[in-house]
Amino acid sequence: MKLRLFAWPVFLLAYTVFAALPRPYNVRMDAVNTRYIMKWDWNHSMANHNITFTAQFTFSHKQSDERSYTGMCIGITEERCDFSRELAYMGSYILRVRAEGRGQMSDWYRLEFVPDEHADLGPPSHVAFDPGDTMLTVSFREPMTEQNTPMRSVLDMFFSLQYWEKHSPSKKQEKVFDSTEGTLFPLKPWTEYCLQVNAFSKLYNKTSPYTQQQCVRTLGYSPLWKVLLALLGCVALMTTVPVYRCHKKRKSLVSKHTFPSSILHNTQDTISLLLLPQEESCVATVVVAVQVEQTSQGQQQQVKGQGDVEAEQDSGSSSIQRGQGSSSQDSGIYSGEDSGKKSAGSTTTSQPKETH
């Protein structure tokens, strides 16, 4: 009986240990400037009911005193807790978090956090430019606290500005300022420069990331060589387009027209005309076209002349036949053969007229 009474508390203790919730893991701080957010993970497959979390903090020198802990987030379902409004930048703290559900609680996960050592420094913002002829004035906003006050209220701060010509990113130059506005001088006029700025603290050994690269062009007149290059480009464009169009028309004329045999036999002269330089290509095309037209007219005149000769010959033959017919009529002698010849003569006489 006594053994049974003794075994019961042991069983309850073993059951409680076995049924305890696992504590959160991968606990970390997302800390930038004076924003301090604790984040963690928890395996929800370990419980078949809702799980909540409680996060607390205390000063490092009081971590052994359970009564010194202050609850920051109690019974939350999110896996994060914001400590920004309670922790001072120069303090040293112990943060802890645990899981809770249905009367069960996990062990605490403790994390030491010292803001001035562990918090990152954020970059400046709102970078603006005021370009001049050979200078560039840059202004920006320094990193700010969660209370929207400058970070220089809690630590010393300087600013490093890198700048370079856009086409020469490997040749970066750097200037350091102790205020949120600075002037870069001397610079090249009418030249595009790219810039980025960051903040750093020598005392706390902190350096922020650089801002996003931004580019701006200085004022002034463009260099003479750029002006000349632009003019040469315009001249080349104005010269190339007409020459190209003329060359295209020449090719179109050569491909669409059939040259007479008199020109095709003289191959050497024709090729020499077509292979003239571009400046004379239009003139060559006109010469070839004129030769083609003159040759065509000559052939037409030649054909016309041959038609006239044939017409005259046929007309003479008809006259002779008509004369013979008249003689036969006067003598009073007619025959069928003569009648047939007269009909044939009339038919032959009408054909050249139609052709002509």
From TrEMBL:
CDD domains membership: FN3
Pfam families, per the entry: Interfer-bind, Tissue_fac
Record bears the keyword Signal: yes
Disordered: annotated segments: 297-356
First and last residue of the signal peptide: 1-19
Keywords recorded for this protein, A-Z: Membrane, Signal, Transmembrane, Transmembrane helix
GO cellular component, one term: plasma membrane
Positions of transmembrane segments: 224-244
Domain (Fibronectin type-III): residue spans on this chain: 123-221
Gene3D superfamilies (alphabetical): Immunoglobulins (2.60.40.10)
Positions with biased composition (Low complexity): 297-306, 314-350
GO MF assignments: cytokine receptor activity
UniProt-listed PANTHER family: INTERFERON ALPHA_BETA RECEPTOR 1 ISOFORM X1, INTERFERON/INTERLEUKIN RECEPTOR
Protein name: Fibronectin type-III domain-containing protein
Organism: Oncorhynchus mykiss (Rainbow trout)
